């Protein structure tokens, strides 16, 4: 009953939408859902590229059978082994026992470990090609975007590249599949959030993959999540290039924690100082109110970051401590940084933030501000001065 969607004459989309999962990887909220994308190339031989998470196998196979019209899948190409894409491999193999599974040496170790599949394999290396008839496919090994086995598959005939998680976006596909047929701005925002949270740590592997992609002409980017990119290709390559270099546009993210408003007042005063100096791109976040994935997205987007926390049981406010771990986990580079903190009897936050800046190798701007109990005039002025220094940095 379910229909596949054609992308070109020979390439079909057979992916599915997941609007039920609350948290991606059980940690990142999905307000717009997520899609698991899989593609079919129909030629003298038929290639299926990646699969979908297992709960969706029934709809997925229905779509696949719609494309196949009685034929079999000759090749199953595995660009990425993460279970949201590899989940239906066993179901495909059961349906098409003669299918040749294409992957690299690392793929096959994982395939054996996850699904016990060790036969019917065709190993490719970087630059290997296979012919489906009219369509010649070339494989690029692109390790660590975002697992070691990740690779990309390029179809020279339709100039389409199947990129695995690279160029992915959160957001289930609302009707269309190709960017030109969708309300694209929502997906561009979710593209940033996906990159920052999922691929953000792997800046250097992403740069290497971009270099490899330069060698071919690309009319379609077909990732495993979110829209197929056609009209937005220059933009998303630009965004990926900039995010993976950790460049950061001009802008200041202020992230604070506060129980009774004292630290919050300091955040407001720093923003005042920034604004008085003409800075417009200022984003203030309460770390306990806004989900970390959205704050991380802005930290990737902008070049300066200020963090503040009350001292809590001789440490950081717990949500702030956990947020530092999330930044560290993404290894965000080159940020200009400052910090502030409020306490009542012994301030611990200043030394924790100072050590964090050192660990991240960030440049510390201005004089960090510390206050005890409520915000008073000296510290208020120091916060405004810190804002002004950050505006100049
Ligand atoms: C549960 C709890 C633990 C605290 N632990 C410390 C502490 O270890 N050292 C300290 O100097 N102040 C401590 N404080 C006091 C706060 O750091 C201080 O009141 C601060 O100004 C609160 O900032 P806020 O108004 O932004 O929440 C603690 C407060 C609470 C509620």
TrEMBL record:
<dbReference type="InterPro" id="IPR045761">
    <property type="entry name" value="ODP_dom"/>
</dbReference>
<comment type="similarity">
    <text>In the N-terminal section; belongs to the zinc metallo-hydrolase group 3 family.</text>
</comment>
<dbReference type="InterPro" id="IPR008254">
    <property type="entry name" value="Flavodoxin/NO_synth"/>
</dbReference>
<dbReference type="GO" id="GO:0016491">
    <property type="term" value="F:oxidoreductase activity"/>
</dbReference>
<dbReference type="Pfam" id="PF19583">
    <property type="entry name" value="ODP"/>
</dbReference>
<dbReference type="InterPro" id="IPR029039">
    <property type="entry name" value="Flavoprotein-like_sf"/>
</dbReference>
<dbReference type="InterPro" id="IPR016440">
    <property type="entry name" value="Rubredoxin-O_OxRdtase"/>
</dbReference>
<dbReference type="InterPro" id="IPR001226">
    <property type="entry name" value="Flavodoxin_CS"/>
</dbReference>
<dbReference type="GO" id="GO:0010181">
    <property type="term" value="F:FMN binding"/>
</dbReference>
<dbReference type="InterPro" id="IPR036866">
    <property type="entry name" value="RibonucZ/Hydroxyglut_hydro"/>
</dbReference>
<dbReference type="InterPro" id="IPR001279">
    <property type="entry name" value="Metallo-B-lactamas"/>
</dbReference>
<dbReference type="GO" id="GO:0046872">
    <property type="term" value="F:metal ion binding"/>
</dbReference>
<protein>
    <submittedName>
        <fullName>Flavorubredoxin</fullName>
    </submittedName>
</protein>
<dbReference type="Pfam" id="PF00258">
    <property type="entry name" value="Flavodoxin_1"/>
</dbReference>
<dbReference type="GO" id="GO:0009055">
    <property type="term" value="F:electron transfer activity"/>
</dbReference>
<feature type="domain" description="Flavodoxin-like">
    <location>
        <begin position="252"/>
        <end position="391"/>
    </location>
</feature>
